[in-house]
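hey so i finally got around to running the thing on that chain from the lab meeting. sorry it took forever, my laptop kept dying and i had to restart like 3 times. anyway pasting the input first so we r on the same page abt which one it is
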Amino acid sequence: MTTTAADQSPAAQSPVAAALAGLPRVVDLLAARAEEHDRDATFPYQGIEAVHEAGLLTLTVDRRYGGPGGTLADTVRVLAQLGRGDASVAVVTAFTLLQHAEQARVAGWPTAGYRRLLNESRRGPALVNTLRVEPGGRTGAPPATIARRDGDGWLLSGRKTYCTGAEALAWMAVTARTDEPVPRIGTFLVRGESEGLEIDPTWDQLGLRASASHDVVLEEVHVPAELALGLTPPKGGTVKGGAAAPGAAAEAVPAAELGRAWHDLALSAVAVGVARSAQDWLVRFLHQRTPANLTEPLGSLPRYRSALGEIEAQLIGAEELVHGLAPRVDRAEPDAVARTGPAHLMASRAAISAVQQAVSLTGNPGLSRRHPLERYLRDVLSSRVHLAPDEAVLEAAGRAALERGARP
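ok and heres what got predicted. didnt touch it at all, straight out
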């Protein structure tokens, strides 16, 4: 059977394929304005709009909600490309995709609330993120943000930090504890335009400067009772929200572990995408740069070709790791899920090392604000904010190795 041009049109493709087909144009649009947003630390609204219009911002909305049903394998492919254009846009997009993917797995949002989010997504970009981190917070400590009963709802007060996309979020999933005699911990869905909510523009980092990862201050923000999710009950109670997706079988891998695996690989893909852009710029530089004492470009020298090969080898390894694990996580293979933490660490290290080597090879031009390489370096270094501490990842991996070795 002959395939016609019409068969290849976006209308004839699956929703996922149609969205992926628009990626190159979106990446070009992002790259065209990335330097401007980085310099001014302004949020890339037009870039997010382009991602939305291409159908990429809702790629992971499940089919039962009328979405494309994009997988983790699809997601890492998209984020790696968006990272090539603008790392800040890619990171903001990642957290919204992770939210929709989590809803596909556990249906934690109430039906009416999620329907509202999807309706907003049809009209324009509807960014979502979970706000967990608090100033001075310790890993494992209960949140300092307090939810106080107010009639049939709750009043939320507290401060969250490192809130990626803060100024543009349509919805915020805020972790908090209740002020009850026996406190409960849950997630409260907050509209970005809620009264009592303020964005404190604290984000002034080395890289990812356009991600608007500011602090969010909540002062008695009202949340309806039905938008308080997963409240851990007193002993003997029942959990509200967080039910398994309709029709889903009992999972061999807990939903929380799958969620961490998605996060690990999604953010790894962004870092590797940034490193690939750095390599692209380096290749052009080596083709064009001919020092006064040479008659051929630097790329003709074995030393530079070997160094470029080292970068290529590192990035191939990182890509094979991320893109190889993603479909296995989609199949909920326990071994694959358990490896995504170390994979995130190794992919991030490879991406950072690759960009650092590119800067070293180019000398002064690589550190000049006239060229994007120094921005790629700052962005890839700042990607570590989304990575668990090295010691925690490695200690967990070592403990797992010891447990395997102790088995008969």
